[in-house]
Fold this sequence. Notes:
By secondary structure, the chain is of the alpha/beta class. The protein has helices spanning 41-48, 70-76, 92-102, 108-121, 137-149, 167-180, 193-199, 217-222, 235-244, 278-285; strands spanning 3-11, 17-26, 29-34, 56-61, 64-65, 77-80, 155-159, 185-190, 202-207, 210-215, 228-232, 246-253, 256-262, 272-273.
Amino acid sequence: MQLVIENLTKTYSGGxxxxxxxxxxxxxxxxxxxxxxxxxxxTLMRTIATLQDPDSGNVMLGDLDVLADKMKVRxxxxxxxxxxxxxxxxxxxxxxxxxxILKGITNRGERRDRxxxxxxxxxxxxxxxxxxxxxxxxxxxxxGIAQALIGDPQLLIVDEPTAGLDPGERNRFxxxxxxxxxxxxxILSTHIVQDVKELCTQMAIIHxxxxxxxxxxxxxxxxxxxxxxxxxVSKPELEELRSQLQVISTKLxxxxxxxxxxxxxxxxxxxxxxxxxxxxxxxxxxxxxxPSAV
Length: 294
Ligand code: ADP
């Protein structure tokens, strides 16, 4: 089974082209969709989740036409939206039971077994009687995954799931997702490079509605091999460098800017060549004049 997206285009009524001829092939496993805020990720996720229509293009899940057979797709889909909405005062167990009914699990005994197994899987069994509104951010996200998985989906979409989680919660969430991604298609939409680095075997970078890279993270890094240069500079020097070179990122190390520059040749003057990492790929792909992959 593969999810194949072809030439999806969407322009909102205000004139923003959120998707511009997006084509991707997404296999079973964890697929990272990486892009800055406003790139078009949620628009793409909502389109695949059958919640909105594109202006043009096709989406196929195996031999199912996603845009035409919405009801069939919904039976195969688990979705954790960016804004999961209001967190009810209902207990986690009662809410999951309710969602299981909506997913068509009508046999009471089977439903109870599935709900308990799912609560256990997301490590919420001991909190099952507490109201979801009282949960921490990480617990809410784990509940979000439980509600997305209770119908046994073939396709799981999670939109910006780690934003706002502390490092411990984020790690627990990563472990949970990586288990799920072994057997089904999981699309993880995120602006956090670390999410993709830690979890995904395949990825795409999307910016201003277009695909800038699609492939394996290691291939993305290899594509910049020999082109990333690093130097520790003073703050006034940094301003000067920006006008001369393609500075793709700066971070402070002990209060001093460490710059990464994209250049085919040695930029000279104290720069050292460094192996590219995924952040370099991401930041160079979203430069104003970066080429589109397709
Ligand atoms: P991301 O999820 O990557 O942050 P979105 O898909 O939410 O990106 O947004 C892509 C672009 O489309 C942004 O410029 C955003 O402001 C715009 N946009 C998103 N939803 C709407 C909408 N309902 N109406 C008008 N513009 C929208």
